């Protein structure tokens, strides 16, 4: 596939930044707000934002079940920060009525690193992403507390009080990071995901 079309779930969060990073990575990027728009993409990015709000809006816009079905059918999806939460099969410290897309067999803890004032940046080595450690930006970020047998841990925090915490994972065509690569200008994570989309096609 020479130029796949990748959607960015455009309900809430940093949609524009992901779309720009995808366009710079050589794909056609489109916002996805309706089921018919979801039908037109080869892969999907779930951006950072507020996961409880995203969960509600996915139901309001009729996207929750169609996204779950596309995931079950093998569509590649990448979630960053809130997107990681939305892809998890289990969420700790979320709202009781919060529901995600049940994609990656993992348990994540919402706002695990603390509040907005506790946001930080740290180097993260990511398996499969060549080059130096990724300069990762964490904003009210989750971390992964448990992964299932089919989930590959791609990256951990390697410094400070959160040393060793899992912050990047992959299961099949599904990729998730606790940090925001779209805010850094470093396109390596987006290019990695583009390669996943091309391979799936």
UniProtKB/TrEMBL annotation:
Please name the pathway. Cofactor biosynthesis; pyridoxal 5'-phosphate biosynthesis
Keyword Oxidoreductase found: no
Q: Which GO terms describe its cellular component?
A: cytosol; glutaminase complex
What EC number(s) is this enzyme filed under?
4.3.3.6, 3.5.1.2
Q: Which residues bind L-glutamine?
A: 49-51, 110, 139-140
Q: Which GO terms describe its biological process?
A: L-glutamine catabolic process; pyridoxal phosphate biosynthetic process; pyridoxine metabolic process
Return any one Pfam family short name.
SNO
- Active site annotation, chain numbering: 81, 180, 182
Q: Does the keyword field hold Lyase? A: yes
Which function does this protein serve? Catalyzes the hydrolysis of glutamine to glutamate and ammonia as part of the biosynthesis of pyridoxal 5'-phosphate. The resulting ammonia molecule is channeled to the active site of PdxS.
Quaternary structure and partners? In the presence of PdxS, forms a dodecamer of heterodimers. Only shows activity in the heterodimer.
Q: What is the name of the protein in this document?
A: Pyridoxal 5'-phosphate synthase subunit PdxT
Species for this entry: Micromonospora polyrhachis
Q: Which gene encodes it?
A: pdxT
């Amino acid at each position: 596939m020479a130029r796949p079309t990748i959607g960015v779930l455009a309900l809430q969060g940093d949609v524009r930044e992901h779309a720009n990073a995808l366009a710079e990575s050589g794909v056609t990027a489109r916002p996805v707000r309706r089921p018919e728009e979801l039908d037109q993409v080869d892969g999907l990015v779930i951006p950072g934002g507020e996961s409880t709000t995203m969960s509600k809006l996915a139901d309001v816009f009729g996207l929750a079940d169609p996204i779950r079905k596309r995931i079950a059918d093998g569509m590649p999806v990448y979630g960053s920060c809130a997107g990681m939460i939305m892809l998890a099969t289990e969420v700790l410290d979320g709202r009781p009525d919060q529901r995600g897309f049940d994609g990656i067999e993992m348990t994540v803890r919402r706002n695990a690193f603390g509040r907005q004032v506790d946001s930080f940046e740290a180097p993260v080595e990511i398996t499969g992403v060549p080059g130096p450690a990724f300069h990762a930006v964490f904003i009210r970020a989750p971390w992964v507390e448990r992964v299932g047998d089919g989930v590959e841990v791609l990256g951990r925090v390697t410094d400070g009080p959160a040393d060793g915490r899992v912050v990047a994972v992959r299961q099949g065509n599904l990729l998730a990071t606790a940090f925001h690569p779209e805010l850094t200008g470093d396109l390596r994570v987006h290019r990695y995901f583009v390669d996943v989309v091309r391979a799936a096609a």
